[in-house]
Design a protein that fits this description.
With 582 residues, the protein is mainly α. It has helices at 3-43, 72-87, 96-105, 114-127, 135-153, 157-175, 179-188, 200-222, 243-273, 281-295, 304-311, 317-336, 344-365, 375-389, 392-403, 409-423, 440-453, 475-485, 504-508, 520-523, 537-546, 566-581; strands at residues 461-462, 489-494, 497-503, 551-556, 559-565. The longest helix has 41 residues, at 3-43.
Length: 582
């Protein structure tokens, strides 16, 4: 394929992924809103406040029997579990880890049914009051669309991985209305200390396209363009005397992040080892979530409305502390049990409650020390996400875009940098690699890149060190060489030209009583597979693998100049790798 045409072809796939991600985000949003109205409002008689930029699509009165609201998450857990474990078990849990694993270990391949199953299962989980979010599911939905498009178009592994990253970025950028943050999240979340920079430009493209598609949907229903999910109080400028308090917020977020991640995986591992049907586990997790909601009903669903109340300064200290603890517990049981939903939205809520708690505590302990205590809600949000998701840059940008509080950039940077550094290896995504060099995907690419730079002549065994035979030699002569050298094949040379290859398998086809007299010229393989000394080791390795042979003759102008084996290639690669590490 013409290179210029191929680039345009791939760019078209990226644009298509962005469009599909936008509509996928809309589908997920609509399903969650629909099921929330049915389960929580219709069956449970509950209505929760919305965040500033969240739009309520479905509102209808249902003449249904009221169900005790604390039982509804268990019902949603049953339905979600049945959908997931019947049709796509990889859609269980928070989703982001599945995408990361697909990128690193599964060639970027995600089954085509996963996006649809994930959207339905997540809507059932969140809509029935489960404590989960849209980030992991929309990331898996977007990545799944990207992988599906790549597979249908027959793209390479590398291109498929880029579309997976781009799809993840598109889903996040759209549903969180954070085009820059979504793109950065897509390339950052794969690693703890690195980023997938190869996909950055494509992530920008899908994220902004998905953002525009989703924003048009919100505009159509909101009749104005809210711009961000949360509304931030107006701030003239940051009081730099509060920098120590920003730092304290970061430190407190680290402590809570450690507790959150440890408890989440403590619950997750318990449910993993439970000896029962997998689809039942989310129901148990939903039941426990319902019990927690008896004390703190605000923990049900995504709880964004209560984050907005905290930002507005209209949430009491007891509710802030209660929601912080309850959200950690409920999320661990909802998602850790196998329920389908993300952990990013709960992290937003937990982090905002940590920040609100710190802001209120400082204001009570040192009256007048801080100008606007409410801004600590947003600062805590950014710092906490940075610690648990290991995405410091994306966390800062996403929180700014989601809140519209761009004046808070220095404060969020301070708290988030401290929380990221102090959090160490703590992280909610187990499948993250430390760096690109640790990724199996990039290790394979690294091996290929190195082999492409080494010529066959630099690694082969020279012809003068190669044992050869002539066409007039007998089969018995070759058997003797096999026994004394351990080699299973030999080049056949006549008039200084390579004329064939004789192997032990060729000899074994001859009856024993003919081996003393049978000439090699009569039984040798004349159809030769060989490489030239100027070819790369990558080409030589492909030939060895495709023909399932252990060695290849190296030929120049019909003359044998050497032999290249798999062992020769391995040694050359090891030598070159050692040079790079010096």
């Amino acid at each position: 394929m013409n290179e210029r045409y191929h680039k345009g072809y791939f760019l078209g796939a990226v644009v298509l992924t962005g469009i599909v991600c936008g509509f996928g985000a809309i589908l997920l949003y609509l399903l969650i809103d629909l099921f929330s109205e049915f389960f929580l409002s219709g069956l449970g008689g509950l209505r929760f406040p919305n965040a500033y930029g969240e739009v309520k699509i479905f509102q209808f009165d249902l003449d249904l029997v009221t169900v005790p609201y604390f039982l509804i998450p268990a019902l949603g857990g049953v339905l979600s579990g049945m959908v997931v474990y019947r049709f796509a078990p990889e859609a269980e849990g928070h989703g982001t880890d599945s995408v990361i694993r697909a990128f690193h270990r599964e060639h970027g391949i995600i089954r085509g049914r996963v996006p649809v199953i994930k959207a339905l299962a997540t809507a059932l989980t969140i809509g029935s009051g489960g404590s989960a979010g849209r980030e992991g599911p929309v990331a898996q939905i977007g990545a799944g669309f990207g992988s599906f498009i790549a597979q249908k178009l027959g793209l390479s592994d590398r291109e498929r991985r880029i579309l997976v990253v781009s799809g993840m970025a598109g889903g996040i950028g759209g549903i969180f209305r954070s085009p820059l943050g979504g793109a950065l999240f897509g390339i950052e979340v794969l690693y703890r200390k690195d980023a997938e920079t190869d996909g950055l430009i494509y992530a920008f493209i899908t994220s902004i396209i998905s953002y525009m598609v989703f924003s048009l949907f919100i505009f159509f229903h909101h009749h104005e363009f809210p711009g961000s999910i949360f509304r931030t109080p107006e701030i003239n400028q940051i009081n730099f005397e509060e920098i120590p308090f920003f730092a304290i917020t970061g430190v407190v977020c680290v402590a809570v992040a450690h507790a959150y991640v440890r408890f989440f995986y403590f619950v997750h591992d318990i449910f993993k080892d439970l000896g029962m049907k997998n689809w039942i586990k989310p129901a148990i997790g939903g039941f426990v979530t319902g019990m927690i909601a008896l004390a703190i009903p605000q923990t049900m669903g995504m709880s964004y409305g209560y984050v907005q109340l905290a930002i507005d300064g209209n949430l009491g200290l007891k509710i802030i502390l209660g929601l912080l603890i309850a959200k950690i517990l409920a999320t661990s049981f909802t998602v850790g049990s196998g329920g389908s939903g993300g952990v990013f939205a709960p992290s937003i809520v937990i982090g905002s409650m940590v920040g609100a708690l710190v802001g209120n505590a400082i204001n009570i302990a040192i009256p007048g020390a801080i100008d606007v205590p409410e801004i600590y809600t947003i600062i805590g949000m950014g710092a906490f996400i940075s610690a648990v998701a290991k995405t410091p840059i994306a966390s800062i940008i996403m929180v700014l875009e989601m809140s519209g509080g761009y004046e808070l950039l220095p404060a969020i940077m301070t708290a988030s940098s401290i929380s990221y550094i102090l959090s160490g290896s703590t992280g909610i995504y187990r499948e993250q690699m430390d760096t690109r060099a640790d990724s199996p995907a990039h290790r394979r690419e690294l091996i290929k890149d190195i082999l492409e730079t080494i010529r066959v002549s630099d690694a082969m065994t020279p012809a003068e060190n190669v044992i050869s035979v002539s066409p007039s030699s007998t089969a018995k002569d070759v058997l003797y060489l096999v026994k004394t050298t351990g080699h299973l094949g030999f080049p056949v040379i006549e008039n200084e030209k390579l004329t064939g290859i004789i192997t032990l398998s060729d000899i074994n086809k001859i009856p024993d009583d003919e081996k003393d007299e049978k000439r090699i010229g009569d039984i040798m393989t004349r159809k030769l597979i060989y490489v030239s000394p100027d070819e790369s080791l990558e080409n030589a390795l492909k030939l060895l693998i495709s023909h399932d042979v252990g060695r290849l003759p190296v030929v120049s102008d019909g003359r044998l100049v050497g032999i290249i084996t798999r062992s020769d290639i391995m040694r050359a690669h090891a030598r070159e790798l050692a040079k790079l590490e010096q």
